[in-house]
């Protein structure tokens, strides 16, 4: 595979594979319970049994980091999925349904681009928090709310890229051929245009995942995302900041969860760069 | 030009009214009232408070009179949770702190990002470029709250050079500005590198080179100028990033700025304060984006104004 020959993408895939597997299999690995700790073990520096040290309640940080990666990745992937659905719908609609709809939708995207979404998300999460009993009764957990809201605010780039690709493809001979055969518009869109736009969609997806991850970490850090007893990388970092004091320099509490988050973000952006190089040689490579 | 500016202003005003209405709707939809946390308010006092904030009126009345206060009299009303001060006063006090932090962070981003990006582009493929590009990627990947904590660990506790928290002197500003500015600077550097490289590959640079111009002059006089256009575009998103980042950075460094007040006001259902700060944030970012559009048009008349 061409992607495997791309050095950055290969490194990213390896890192993501190892981290993802470890996080996924964490409940079955012979590790300490991420939720339970011995108070006598509190704030131990990394050594011996506790590879990443322990936190203020004596819980094993390695196990906690793995389960943090697990829930952060879960939210990152689902949020990206939500943004994918919205972005592809809007982009395809704009690219395929005539000039008026196109210009209206793209104008909307332009306006939305200039909006500090984070404030709105904070606002929304705080209001939804007041409705939590009602939501819970309908089986909607806090995680669901989180990735839906974040996904609903990160689809702009996806929509723009998909729209441009659909507009480009629409003029190609194979679409004309499909139309000459009497295919309906929606069928052309689903059977011919979207599969051909898949490359662009995948590249946009690898760019969306890290921004959702960062959003989640950010919101959990502020106390608006995942809450204890849940674990996520942002929450772990927040706990690390709280534990930090001149008396105990508990560097491991911030370095390991923060490092894991940085590694995830870096890997996804490397993977995205690699995918773009492989799938879209028009961009950049030929210029050099 | 004047017409365009007027158009931009009108669309910003429209955006603000939409934001205002949305936040009014969202806040009123929430089941809890702002005074639920007060224990056993006597009914007449509760009534008096609700009358003062017009919570006893029908919804459309509340909406219209609030709208008129905000947009015609520029009065954001008293805060719900800090009873004796108005939202205007709170913003007047906290905004300068956040603005100082934000501009210091942007300064850091420009000072680090621009030269590093140009240098990496000039040495493309060489060791310096690889090293710089790797550090840009790293700077983009490390979230600012992790960076902030590492800075505190290093420069407050291990080496006691800077104060940990508060906002009294310039020394208090150094670490927060670095933590907020470095990731933005990394993004800026990457963008600068890419756009200077693109400019270096374009025909007019080849012409300049063919005329026998020294490489340094080609870089500074031709490539840099063309390469800066996308960098101006970056300032819009950068302002939004500063704003977003300041929410956590202010929390970590205990800076009593607007971000801190925004988060706590949303949590405490302080409707008036939250709405006021939200309007200011949206207005600020919209005005900056409009300025960037106009600047771009002035720099390069081919750029259409939307």
Protein described:
The complex is a heterodimer of chains A (288) and B (306). Chain A has a single domain, classed as MetI-like fold. The radius of gyration of chain A is 22 Å and the shape is elongated. With 288 residues, chain A is mostly helical. In chain A, helix 3 crosses helix 12. By secondary structure, chain B is mostly helical. In chain B, helix 4 packs across helix 7 and helix 9 runs antiparallel to helix 11. Chain B is flat.
Biggest sheet character of chain B: none
Which regions of chain B are unreliable across 5 or more consecutive residues at pLDDT < 50?
none
Q: What is the straight-line distance between the termini of chain A?
A: 23 Å
Number of domains of chain A: 1
The CATH superfamily of chain A turns out to be: MetI-like
- List SSEs of chain A in N-to-C order: HHHHHHHHHHHHH
Keywords:
heterodimer, A: 288 residues, mainly alpha, MetI-like fold, elongated, disordered C terminus, B: 306 residues, 11 helices
Topology, pairings included?
The complex is a heterodimer of chains A (288) and B (306).
Chain A: H1 2-5, H2 7-25, H3 61-96, H4 98-113, H5 117-130, H6 132-137, H7 142-151, H8 156-170, H9 173-180, H10 185-196, H11 198-221, H12 233-243, H13 252-279
Helix pairs in contact in A: 2-3, 2-13, 3-4, 3-7, 3-8, 3-11, 3-12, 3-13, 5-7, 8-11, 9-10, 11-12, 11-13, 12-13
Chain B: H1 2-29, H2 43-52, H3 59-72, H4 87-122, H5 127-141, H6 144-158, H7 170-200, H8 203-210, H9 215-252, H10 258-267, H11 271-299
Helix pairs in contact in B: 1-11, 4-5, 4-7, 4-9, 4-11, 5-7, 6-7, 6-9, 7-9, 8-9, 9-10, 9-11, 10-11
Task: Give the gist of this structure.
The complex is a heterodimer of chains A (288) and B (306). By secondary structure, chain A is mainly alpha-helical. In chain A, 70% of the residues lie in helices and 0% in strands.
């Amino acid at each position: 595979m061409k992607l495997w020959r791309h050095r950055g993408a290969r490194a990213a895939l390896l890192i993501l594979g190892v981290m993802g597997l470890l996080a996924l299999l964490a409940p079955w690995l012979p590790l300490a319970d991420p939720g339970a700790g011995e108070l006598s073990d509190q704030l131990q520096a990394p050594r011996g049994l506790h590879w990443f040290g322990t936190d203020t309640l004596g819980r094993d940080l390695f196990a906690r980091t793995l389960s943090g990666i697990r829930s952060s990745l879960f939210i990152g992937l689902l949020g990206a999925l939500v943004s994918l659905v919205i972005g592809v719908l809007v982009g395809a609609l704009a690219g395929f349904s005539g000039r008026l709809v196109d210009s209206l939708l793209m104008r909307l995207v332009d306006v939305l681009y200039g909006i500090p979404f984070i404030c709105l998300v904070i606002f929304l999460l705080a209001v939804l928090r007041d409705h939590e009993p009602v939501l819970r009764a309908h089986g909607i957990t806090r995680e669901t709310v989180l990735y839906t809201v974040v996904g609903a605010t990160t689809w702009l780039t996806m929509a723009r890229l998909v729209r441009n690709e659909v507009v480009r493809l629409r003029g190609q001979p194979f679409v004309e051929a499909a139309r000459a055969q009497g295919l309906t518009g929606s069928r052309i869109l689903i059977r011919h245009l979207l599969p051909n736009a898949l490359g662009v969609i995948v590249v946009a997806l690898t760019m969306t995942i890290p921004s959702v991850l960062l959003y989640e970490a950010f919101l959990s850090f502020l106390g608006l995302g995942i809450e204890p007893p849940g674990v996520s990388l942002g929450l772990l970092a927040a706990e690390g900041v709280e534990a930090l004091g001149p008396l105990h320099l508990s560097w491991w509490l911030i370095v390991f969860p923060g490092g894991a988050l940085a590694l995830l973000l870096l890997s996804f952006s490397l993977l995205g760069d690699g995918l773009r190089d492989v799938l879209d040689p028009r961009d950049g490579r030929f210029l050099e | 030009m004047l017409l365009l500016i007027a158009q931009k202003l009108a669309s910003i005003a429209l955006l603000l009214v939409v934001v205002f209405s949305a936040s009014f709707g969202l806040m009123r939809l929430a089941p809890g009232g702002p005074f639920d946390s007060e224990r056993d308010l006597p009914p007449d006092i509760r009534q008096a408070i609700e009358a003062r904030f017009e919570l006893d009126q029908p919804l459309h009345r509340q909406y219209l009179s609030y709208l008129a206060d905000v947009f015609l009299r520029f009065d954001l009303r008293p805060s719900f949770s800090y009873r004796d001060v108005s939202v205007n006063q709170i913003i007047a006090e906290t905004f300068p702190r956040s603005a100082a932090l934000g501009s210091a962070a942007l300064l850091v981003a420009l000072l680090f990002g621009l030269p590093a990006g140009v240098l990496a582009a000039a040495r493309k493929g060489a060791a310096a470029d690889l090293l710089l590009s790797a550090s840009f990627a790293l700077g983009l990947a490390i979230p600012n709250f992790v960076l902030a904590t590492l800075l505190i660990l290093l420069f407050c506790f291990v080496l006691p050079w800077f104060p940990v928290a508060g906002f009294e002197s310039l020394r208090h500003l150094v670490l927060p500005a670095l933590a907020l500015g470095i990731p933005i600077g990394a993004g800026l550097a990457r963008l600068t590198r890419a756009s200077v490289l693109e400019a270096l590959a374009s025909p007019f640079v080849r012409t300049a080179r063919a005329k026998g111009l020294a490489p340094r002059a080609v870089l500074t006089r031709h490539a840099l100028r063309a390469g800066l256009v996308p960098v101006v575009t970056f300032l819009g998103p950068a302002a939004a990033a500063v704003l977003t980042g300041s929410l956590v950075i202010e929390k970590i460094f205990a800076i009593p700025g607007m971000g801190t007040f925004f988060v706590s006001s949303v949590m405490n259902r302080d409707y008036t304060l939250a709405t006021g700060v939200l309007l200011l944030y949206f207005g600020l970012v919209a005005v900056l984006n409009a300025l960037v559009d106009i600047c771009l048009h002035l720099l390069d008349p081919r750029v259409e104004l939307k």
